[in-house]
Predict the 3D structure of the following.
Amino acid sequence: MANPSILILPGDGIGPEVMTEVKKVINWFGEKRDLAFDVSEDLVGGAAYDAHGAPLSDETMAKAQEVDAVLLGAVGGPKYDTLDFSVKPERGLLRLRKEMDLYANLRPAQCFDALSDFSSLKQEVVAGLDIMIVRELTSGIYFGEPRGIITENNERVGINTQRYTESEIERVARSAFELAKRRGNKVCSMEKANVMESGILWREVVQRVHDEEYADVELSHMYADAGAMQLCRWPKQFDVIVTDNLFGDLLSDAAAMLTGSLGMLPSASLGAPMANGRPKAMYEPVHGSAPDIAGQGKANPIACILSFSMALRYSFDQGEEATRLEAAIEKVLADGVRTADLLGPEGGSPVSTSEMGDKILAALDASL
Ligand code: IPM
Ligand code: MG
């Protein structure tokens, strides 16, 4: 049987640096665990714009549709800020999400024991934190029509449309309930049903899917603003949070910061199963391209490496190997190894991006 295939899209900024470390980890699994992957690599974001004048070429899009999983680094940078909206680096990422129909974006916020004093919140509030945000990723205000900037009564008007169909809400709700069953069996759904019709429908449909198919999972509803407040007040009350595209964007950044560093958090974007039974899937760190530190070997590769670990779990049915990788990372952190983003105000001496990768490989070796 052919090896499972992975398309790597390093992208911009720190993307290529952190992806170099992921490639080392992928090779390790090939050499030491007999888990070989067919890896190919291509351009996305500003890097693709520089090469082809578009943030994602049709050829790359077609490749992404064929592989078993896409691993993406990060897109964007100040160099591209003045580009026309239609060719901005972010459009490449959004095209991948939309055309692959990756409707369920899983963003875990997990607090590693070794870093529990690193959050801006009190240790007791975050120690042991393990929540999963399921963000709808292919609809809502990110993609709704009409959109644009028009002129009306001699002034410009910016327009975006929040829009959700019942089936779009149903399928992401199912993803959330399915995940909850394998975790803490609790789902909190967040919208603004107090001011938005799309929120009223969201709440109704999530409740119906629950009552008809997942009555044994505990379900609650919260307005998204109150949800943001509760996330900061007592995040451990949550298990799975399901929410729309825009609220999910905001809430997942907030949840990420609870754990101390954006440099730690992976994500999986999943769609419907392909012919081989694997879900359409793209894995990427939650952090961005961090142009301020790009090219300096300062970036933390852990979020991107953990994204590969999610790929092992969700695309390749290798949960045990994913756990091995996560344990190796935990070990390295427990040993006090820190990239610059993981040093508190008292400082210390950080390791470089590639040193962090090497430490993780060493911990993987030790796990054998
Ligand atoms: C994210 C990012 C993206 C988003 C950007 C880069 C388009 O913030 O993945 O959270 O807004 O979805
Ligand atoms: Mg975001």
The first helix runs from residue 15 to 32. The chain has a mean pLDDT of 95. The pocket of 3-isopropylmalic acid (ligand 1) is lined by residues 90, 93-94, 249 (CB under 6 Å). The first strand starts at residue 5 and ends at 11.
